[in-house]
């Protein structure tokens, strides 16, 4: 945990330095959040749902909705994936993702669905909105067609390998980063 330095004193490791730069546990809940909401529609794997919660923490996202049959925080696999961030990320449960997405759309959030579809575009071609509601679908069934009908953008991440797609956690990370990057480039105050 500590590194030896020439003076014989032990200097803090980069991890300890990083922790010192973070806000206190008391200040953290009051930090401004990125107006990007994640809606997880029946993510089958606890590790995928846990990864999404860790991304929400890393990017200080507004909220994560765990819908349908999505794995729940508290399960052993989820705990291994989240590393405890579910205590710091605003999340909520909903049986059906459609009313959640409709509510954000009515509030002025752009709806972005991460899906391989005829109408999908790559991040290079898309103008991604902020604030945004990013919908992540089931690993096999994809995004609910009722929600695809509401999408402002259907985002596809190009895969040059033999696989047709990547896991939902990796795809979510790339999508979140690109939504925030585009907002920052546009000078949008909401860019993380």
Mean pLDDT: 85
Q: Please give the alpha-carbon distance between the first and last residues.
A: 30 Å
Could you say which overall geometry the principal axes of the C-alpha atoms support?
A: globular
CATH superfamily: SPOUT methyltransferase, trefoil knot domain
Number of helices: 6
CATH architecture: 3-Layer(aba) Sandwich
Provide the CATH topology: Alpha/beta knot
Question: What's a concise summary of this model?
Answer:
The protein is of the alpha/beta class and 192 residues long. Helix content is 31%, strand content 20%.
Describe, in plain words, how this protein is organized in 3D:
- This protein is 31% helix and 20% strand.
- The chain is built from 6 helices and 8 strands.
- Strands 5-4-3-7-6-8 form a 6-stranded parallel beta sheet, sandwiched between helices. It has a two-stranded antiparallel sheet with strand order 1-2.
- Helix 3 links the parallel strand 4 and strand 5.
- Helix 2 runs parallel beside helix 3 and helix 2 packs parallel to helix 6.
């Amino acid at each position: 945990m500590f590194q030896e330095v020439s003076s014989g004193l032990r200097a803090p490791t980069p991890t300890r330095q990083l922790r010192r730069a973070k806000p206190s546990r008391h200040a953290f809940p009051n930090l401004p959040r990125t107006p990007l909401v994640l809606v997880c529609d029946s993510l089958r794997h606890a590790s995928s749902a846990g990864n999404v919660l860790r991304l929400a923490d890393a990017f200080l996202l507004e909220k994560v909705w765990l819908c349908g049959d999505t794995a729940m925080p508290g399960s052993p696999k989820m705990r291994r994936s989240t590393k405890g961030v579910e205590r710091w990320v605003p999340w909520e449960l909903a049986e059906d993702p459609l009313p959640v997405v409709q509510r954000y759309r009515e509030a002025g959030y752009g709806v972005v669905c991460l899906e391989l579809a005829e109408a999908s575009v790559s991040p290079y071609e898309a103008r991604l909105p902020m604030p945004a509601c990013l919908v992540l679908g089931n690993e096999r069934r994809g995004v609910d067609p009722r929600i695809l009908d509401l999408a402002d953008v259907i985002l596809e991440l190009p895969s040059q390998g033999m696989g047709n797609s990547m896991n939902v956690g990796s795809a979510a990370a790339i999508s979140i980063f690109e939504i925030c990057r585009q907002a920052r480039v546009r000078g949008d105050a909401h860019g993380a």
